[in-house]
Write a structure and sequence with these properties.
Layout lengths: L8 H9 L4 H6 L5 H7 L11 E2 H7 L10 H10 L3 E10 L5 E11 H5 L1 H4 L7 H15 L5 H8 L1
Antiparallel strand pairs: 1-3, 2-3
């Protein structure tokens, strides 16, 4: 896991998403149905959702008698910058009392930073975005090789 500065988020989003919003990616057959089952919880009327991981798993139909591979799907969606972990919170029981370990809360990156900001580099070629990222990494870490940078960022 690594963190991205806010000013670099649109560049990463353009590169990692290959210039696609999730719905277009799915419509072009480049995203599996299990990703769609997760992402519908963050699209259209749900665009401002912040959902506990355990609730998202249920809502998306994963679990005992449902779809498998929830953690892998979440990881892929995070790597593509469609989702992020926006908080950690304790669960709340029926009486409104917090309990247990903190649980991840997911949201879309657009919810946090705004659609226009996140997609502001979509006009650029994704490979140009990759070059910008690599050039910056070389500037920050001149001793790093291209292979090391590629391994870190891919």
């Amino acid at each position: 896991m690594f963190f991205v500065l806010k000013k670099w988020l649109p560049v990463f989003a353009n590169y990692r998403r290959d210039g696609y919003d999730f719905d277009a990616l799915y419509d072009d057959g480049k995203a599996p149905n299990k990703h769609k089952k997760i992402m519908v919880n963050f699209m259209e009327d749900n665009a401002d959702s912040e959902i506990y991981s355990n609730e998202l798993k249920k809502q998306a139909g994963f679990g005992k008698n449902g779809e498998k591979g929830f953690d892998g799907a979440i990881t892929n969606l995070m790597m593509q910058t469609y989702l992020c972990n926006c908080d950690f919170k304790k669960r709340v029981n029926k009486r409104g009392i917090e309990y247990g370990w903190d649980v991840a809360v997911y949201s879309s990156i657009e919810h946090i930073y705004g659609y226009d900001y996140v997609t502001s580099c979509y006009k650029d070629n994704p490979q140009d975005s990759w070059k910008q990222i690599v050039d910056y990494m070389h500037e920050m870490y001149p001793e790093a090789t291209d292979k090391q940078i590629r391994k870190l960022l891919k």
